[in-house]
Write a structure and sequence with these properties.
The protein is an alpha/beta fold. The protein has one domain: Rossmann fold (3-Layer(aba) Sandwich). The strands form 2 sheets. The chain has an 8-stranded mixed sheet with strand order 5-4-1-6-7-9-8-10, with helices on both faces. It has a two-stranded antiparallel sheet with strand order 2-3. 44% of the residues are buried. Bound molecules: S-adenosylmethionine. S-adenosylmethionine binds next to helix 7.
Length: 288
């Protein structure tokens, strides 16, 4: 039984990193004419009202998207993502936060195919309603996203991006992410895979990025830390995105924007960011 609802967390620092990376990757994919598939394995509700009970209860967006909303000094790489947010809000007041399906539908073109998987019945119903008039390019499924990867890959057009964004409320998600990527690379070696990773003080959370780095593929790892560990040792201090077969433009976009984003979202003086690629890791290993 799933209890996680993304509505409590929409627009927080982790969403900003994840959605910035997603937006930059999709914008790069649009530079070629050939259509592509986007598979969002853990889609959530599509978009979120920031005045809803859930968002108000945690207030996470206040230290997330609300800190960016009226800023006029955004780094260039953040500007199209912020324009998408303004479109979603339809005005100057921040009322809504777009989730990964909304942003994907915004950035992808009419020729592209979008598949959104969501298991939770409440969020699935909201997601289906969000895209009920979207036409044939969008397929909304109440299916297990990991299983759907097997059926969907490789895409007919041989161009595709898979976003894997579990809540990790069950520990088996860590193993399933790794297995799904391994299997995905066998079916579709040239696909771009985006995995969201929480910074939590657990062995599973620490090990997953290290295991992903050992896969036989090019990768980019980008992290955003907003605070030091709490005294009790619990709680998420930040998050990372692991991108397999990253677009060549992604590193520059993140290097341009993450220092500003980390400083803007900092909760204490332990804020930090990192962008690391498989090339850099390989040359460091050779030098050592
Ligand atoms: C972190 S939220 C997704 C947020 C969304 N990707 C976004 O960025 O807006 C994770 C979602 O995955 C759903 N979920 C959990 N396990 C799933 C699975 N195996 N397949 C599909 N959805 C799943 C949860 O119900 C939850 O809504």
């Amino acid at each position: 039984m799933l209890s996680y609802r993304h509505a409590y967390h929409a627009g927080n620092h982790a969403d900003l990193l994840k959605h910035l990376v997603l937006s930059l990757c999709l914008q790069h994919m649009n530079t070629k004419d050939k259509p592509y598939l986007v598979l969002d394995t853990h889609a959530g509700a599509g978009q979120y009202a920031l005045d809803a009970e859930q968002a108000k209860k945690t207030g996470e967006y206040i230290d997330g998207i609300a800190r960016l909303w009226n800023r006029t000094d955004l780094p260039a790489a953040l500007s199209d993502y912020m324009k998408a947010l303004q479109t979603c809000n339809g005005g100057t007041k921040l009322r809504r936060y777009p989730g990964s399906p909304w942003l994907t539908a915004h950035f992808a073109r009419q020729i592209d195919t979008l598949r959104f998987c969501e298991l939770h019945s409440t969020d699935f119903a909201l997601l289906r309603r969000e895209f009920k008039e979207a036409g044939r390019r969008v397929k909304v499924e109440q299916n297990d996203g990991f299983e759907t990867m097997k059926a969907a890959l490789p895409p007919l057009s041989r161009r595709g991006l898979v976003l894997i964004d579990p809540s990790y409320e069950v520990k088996s998600d860590y193993l399933r992410v790794l297995a799904a990527i391994k299997d995905g690379l066998k079916r579709f070696a040239t696909g771009t895979y985006l995995v969201w990773l929480p910074f939590l003080p657990t062995l599973e959370a620490r090990n997953l990025p290290e295991k992903l780095k050992k896969l036989p593929a090019e990768w980019l790892y980008a992290s955003l830390t907003v605070r030091g560990p709490a005294t009790q040792g619990y709680g998420m201090t930040g998050s990372a995105m692991f991108v397999i077969n990253p677009p060549w433009t992604l590193k520059a976009g993140l290097t341009d924007s993450l220092p500003w984003l980390a400083k803007t979202l900092a909760m204490d003086e332990k804020f930090a960011w990192e962008v690391l690629t498989s090339d850099q890791a390989a040359s460091k290993a050779t030098a050592d």
